[in-house]
Amino acid sequence: MMASPADTKESTSLPRMIMIVPCFNEAARLQQKKFLDFRMVNCDSRFLFVNDGSSDETQSVLDAMSAQGLDRIESLRLRHNVGKAEAVRQGMLHGLKHNPDFIGFLDADLATSLEELPRFFEVMEVNPTVKLVMGSRIRLLGRTIERNAARHYIGRLFATFASMALGMSVYDTQCGAKLFRRTPETTSLFAQKFISRWVFDVEILARLAASNCELGFAAEFGITELPLMEWRDVHGSKVKITDGIRAYADILRIGLRYRRNRISARTQSAVNTIKIFSAR
User: Fold this and answer.
1) Domain membership flag for residue 146
2) 177 and 199, same domain (yes or no)
3) What is the DSSP pairing of strand 223-227 with strand 73-78?
4) Which of 79, 94, 110 is the last residue of a domain?
5) Residues 81, 153: one domain?
6) 65 and 35: one domain?
7) Tens digit of each residue's pLDDT (9 = 90 or more) over 265-276
8) CA-CA to 77 of 20 to 30 Å: which in 64, 107, 174, 272?
9) What is the pLDDT of residues 114-164, one digit of tens each?
10) Distance from C-alpha of 219 to C-alpha of 95, rounded to nearest angstrom
11) Are both 155 and 265 inside the same structural domain?
12) Are residues 101 and 124 in the same domain?
């Protein structure tokens, strides 16, 4: 059951970028100083931490950070644990009320460094057609991507499976850093609950692809993967083996549902085009 976000610390200034940070029992792992330091030199950015029904001291840590945050750190408290997908969705819906230019989400463990965020922002600023920038953990010369070998190869298998289900070429669906341009189209991506508690990133892509097709664009239109300069595995993941097994079933469900939506959208788009030309 979804609890009402009763305890919310509000901010008054309008940010250009809001990053949602889902938290579940993260009191020991939250790197407070890094978040506080970042907000000091990035006045256009704000963090919204979503406490997903934590049973430890996470809320106390978030309250302390909010008190020092200069209205750039906010917390949203969910009464019960609802899973990462719904916590991110609730955070996105709440953050969108502030009307930022860009809004995204980031893992609380900072496996993706905060120093990457200006690069996401720059991609959006330079190219106004980009709707979504996704962090991508690609091992290239000059980059520091530190992943456990087993997790890396399991991740590559998962990404291949997800790419096939989506019908689009995507290297890394599961990197925890993503940034969206605020538009009615991207806002609608979070209107409905997700099928999966963990692989909602795949469903976001599926929803966006279906929306693109409905508008007459290619499925991948406006989606950009940004190779990260730095990413490091952080111990303490909440994902269990059973969650990984369930994720594959969820991807199949997502693929089947949204493939039908895309086919229907393409058909309708073609019909509309014929009608336009016929009317001339």
Assistant:
1) yes
2) yes
3) unpaired
4) 110
5) no
6) yes
7) 555 544 444 444
8) 174
9) 999 999 999 999 999 999 999 999 999 999 999 888 888 888 889 899 999
10) 26
11) yes
12) no
Do residues 19 and 45 touch, judged by C-beta distance below 8 A? yes
Tally of structural domains, the chain? 2
Domain-located, residue 2: no
Is pLDDT above 90 for 86? yes
Number of Cβ within a 10 Å radius of residue 84? 25
The answer to whether 133 and 178 are in contact (CB under 8 A) is: yes
- d(CA 20, CA 4) in angstroms, rounded, equals 17
**SS3 of residue 161 by DSSP:** helix
Are 72 and 149 found together in one domain? no
DSSP strands (E only) in 112-229: 132-136, 144-146, 178-181, 223-227
Q: Give me the domain span that covers residue 266.
A: 118-280
Q: What gap in Å lies between CA 274 and CA 278, rounded to an integer?
A: 6
Residue 271 φ then ψ, to 5°: -60, -45
The whole-number pLDDT of residue 6 equals: 41
Tell me, what's the pLDDT at 13?
60
E strand intervals along 92-199? 102-105, 132-136, 144-146, 178-181
Q: How far apart are CA 104 and CA 202, in angstroms?
A: 15
Tokens of 125: 């600023």
Least confident piece of the model among 57-61, 159-163, 187-191, 233-237: 233-237
Residues 248 and 170 in one domain: yes
Contact assessment for residue 108 and residue 22, using Cβ atoms and an 8 Å cutoff: yes
Same-domain status, 45 and 148: no
Q: Are the C-beta atoms of residues 73 and 49 closer than 8 Å to each other?
A: yes
What pLDDT is stored for residue 50 in this prediction? 98
Residues contacting 154, CB < 8 A, separation 6+:
244
Half-sphere exposure of 12 (CA within 13 A, CB side): 1
pLDDT at 223: 97
Q: Does 1 map to a domain?
A: no
Q: Is position 239 within any domain? A: yes
Output the average pLDDT for the chain.
Answer: 87
